[in-house]
Amino acid sequence: MKASKFLVLTAAVFFAGCGIEEPVERVSLEPRPYVWQLPPAYRDVQLGKSTSADVLESIKRYEAEIISESESVIASCGEKKDTYQFWLTMAGFDEEDFTVTRKYFLAIDEKPWYVNWNIKTYGQKLRFDAEITMDKATLTEPYTSENQKRIAIIRKSLEYFRDDIMQVRQDNRILDTGAMMTNQTFERILYVLDKSPAFATRLDEPKGLTFDHLTLGKGRVQMLLNKNIVTFKIRIGRPLPLIWDAK
User: How many domains does the chain have?
Assistant: First the structure.
C-alpha cells in the first residue's frame, strides 16, 4: 500500500512537469531545509570574540562546503541542485584584532515543499540573518527623526554586506547569486521605506515590516538594535504568520 502511494505521488509530480529525481529526493527523509534553520557555522560565531581560526574550525567541523577567503572575510556555501536550494554563510573581521564584527546567513529554496517535514515548512523561499557591529558615526549622526536613523542603519548594513561579499563573490556562482539576491532584497526594503519612512517604526515590532519582493512574493523584515549591534531577520514566502518560528 505504501509503495503504491509513493508511485502515485511520484507520477503526479512527474506529469506536472517536475521530473522524477526531485520528487524522489523530496519524499525521502532529508535534513531540515536551511530556510528553516540556522547552521552551526553561523550560530557558533560570536561577534567581538570569534577569530578567523574559530570560523574555519566551525565550518570544517559541521559542513562539507566550498570555502572562500580574503584578508578580512571568510565565506562558505553549498547547494542541492536537484532541489534548487543553496545557502551561504559569511563572516567579516575587524582589521586590527581580526575578531568577527559581522556575520551573515542566506538560504534560498526555489521550490519549497517538503512532504516529510511539518506543513509549517511549506513555502518559505528565502531566509536572511545577520548581526553587524555598527560604526559609531552612523549611530551618533544627528538625524531628523528616529525613522531616518533606522533607514540609515539599513543602508550602512547593506554597504557592509556589499563590501564583504565583493571580496569573495567571484570565487563561485553561489556567492555571486547570493550577493545579487541579498542586494535585490535590501534594495526593495529601502524602496518601501523611502516611499513611506513612517513604516520604519515597524522594523523592531514582533512581526516586523511586511514588503513585497519583486520575484519571490510576500516577505517580512525585522531589525533590532542593541547598543551597537544590529540584528536582521528577513523571511520571504509563506506562511508569513510563522515567520520567526525557525531559529
Answer: 1
